[in-house]
Prior knowledge:
Layout lengths: L1 E8 L5 E8 L8 E6 L4 E8 L2
Antiparallel strand pairs: 1-2, 1-4, 3-4
Amino acid sequence: MREIIHLACEECSRRNYHTTKNKKTHSAKFTTSKYCKFCKKHTNHKESKL
C-alpha cells in the first residue's frame, strides 16, 4: 500500500512537495534535491511527519 509523504526543505523547514512511497519496501527516509520557492534555490528535501 502506498502512503502519501510530505517533503520539507532542510534549510527553511517548509513542506513544499508531496509524493507517495511504499513504506513496506522502502522504510528509510526519502531525500531528494528540489527547488524551494521560499529559499529561491535548489536544496535537499527530506521526508517529514505530517
